[in-house]
Amino acid sequence: MKMDTQQAKAGLRLKIRSALKNLSPEKRVLESEKLCENLRQQRFFQNAVSILFFASLPDEPDLWPLLNETLATQKMAALPCFDADSQTYLTRRVTDVHVEILSGRFGIREPATTCVAIPLEELDLVLVPGVAFDANGYRLGRGKGFYDRLLENFTGTKIGIAFDEQIVDAVPAEKNDVAMDFVLTPTRYLAKAS
Length: 194
Hints:
Helix 4 links the parallel strand 1 and strand 2. This protein is α/β, with parallel strands linked by helices. It contains 6 helices and 11 strands. A 7-stranded mixed β-sheet has the order 3-2-1-6-9-10-11. Strands 4-5 form a two-stranded antiparallel ribbon. A two-stranded antiparallel ribbon has the order 7-8. It starts with a helix and ends with a strand. It has one domain (2-187): NagB/RpiA/CoA transferase-like (Rossmann fold).
């Protein structure tokens, strides 16, 4: 059974990655801008005092402009930072993306280790990338389980961030997969079924 789920996840990753390759660079920029605007309009974002952003990979929505806007406010912003000792992601506060951001272990932008570590439970809102999401909040990641481990005990609000092309009918889920509370795209707001 586990092998069937793993095979289903691998097949879905290939399908979504293929669909994302068809997005032109211009459309990615436009859809990322729409997604940032959609996020700005959401009450959960407006009310959040502390937010974990992510640094996007080339095939993910780019929220970096929104991170910069957030840093100009009284809100606290953080980013994941890979910890080689524990082989997990930690969260670190960011105050200046021009000074504190480096290329991390997987070529992903992340805070320098000199940035203050923030316990995840001190954050109100976590914005989560993924390969695919469904309407029940299930997320298909890249296959290493980093976000699932990061979020397994998080009690704040978890928002999946995706392009519309990343929304599927059902994501094959296992017991250790952490579901999102909501999924947000440039045009949709999907609330997890209760």
